[in-house]
Amino acid sequence: MPDPDIQDGPPRGLIIAAAGVALAAVIVLLSLAAIRQTDPAPRPVAIAAAPAPAADGPQCAALLASLPDQLGDYHRAVAVEPVPAGAAAWQQESANTEPVILRCGLDRPADFVVGAPLQVVDEVSWFEVKGDGSSTWFAVDRGTYVALTLPQGSGPTPIQLMSRTIAQVMPAQPLNPGPPA
Length: 181
Known about the structure:
alpha+beta; 2 domains; eight-stranded antiparallel beta sheet; 3 helices
């Protein structure tokens, strides 16, 4: 008959404590791994200055005060100081994507001439200027020109939401294209 005072292996309490410590270590390691794999916080967006003689005017002030916090998948971004007058930016959660940039108070785009193709989105007439990997859309039927630069693949939502905002705060004006080239 075995002696009840002799144990074969470590005490049961010690085994339970060791298993608990091991489980806690695994949970901590998995938590740290999950935190490290999330995208870094978006960095402030640098907005290049552009000639915008009407950026400090009442129409741009009204537009900037009414800008939405979100344009589809893009969230309002902090801009690097100094922020050009009449400008704002939105960016996606991922730090690897290009931002959406708004500029208000610009001069008439040089290519916006009689006969230039326009696209109407929610009562706002837009003129597109294509760039490398992005396109800039100018609202050309308001008292001041507004430009919205969209990165490739941004979809229609940013321009649709911005069209609604522009239509609400900036009254429509007759088109004023330049003479044909």
